[in-house]
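Z., the sequence and structure:
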Amino acid sequence: MDAQEALARRLERAKKLQEQREKEMVEKQKQQEIAAAAAATGGSVLNVAALLASGTQVTPQIAMAAQMAALQAKALAETGIAVPSYYNPAAVNPMKFAEQEKKRKMLWQGKKEGDKSQSAEIWEKLNFGNKDQNVKFRKLMGIKSEDEAGCSSVDEESYKTLKQQEEVFRNLDAQYEMARSQTHTQRGMGLGFTSSMRGMDTV
């Protein structure tokens, strides 16, 4: 009888272990179904409180997946740009990804015809006083509206700007000539070289 009792006890233990394993398998299947449902809906928010209320054990991985899904849903709602599925949701910030995509679109978007900055207009109206120099400058700068810049009507503001530029160029030329004459005619001056020192070398 002892052998039969031992065998009965072993069978009971085996049944209990099998029941526990089945419960664990059922819980894992529930978790996988929840994760699959979240992935299938494309970032729907998992309600962790509802999972806790239903008695399902919430692991840190499920909580992290719920948080990432919430961030992706928020980014999609605010920007309209979804993070591709091939990115790891834990490694990519959906808001920064959306900003980056917007910048890419703006960078590669073609410019409109009427879009000219204020500095571009100033460069086009720049006048060197010589038509050949103006044409050469426009070619070097890549300005294609050569005829428009040469024939455009000059208003008061642009006329003042042109006069100021001419004055600046004249001042720069004068300063350059003065500096050049000083460097060529007063060579050896400064840093202790004076006429009295030169006289001492001959003695």
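Residues 42-46 have pLDDT under 50 and may be disordered. The CA atoms of residues 2 and 8 lie 10 Å apart.

Let me know what you think.
H.
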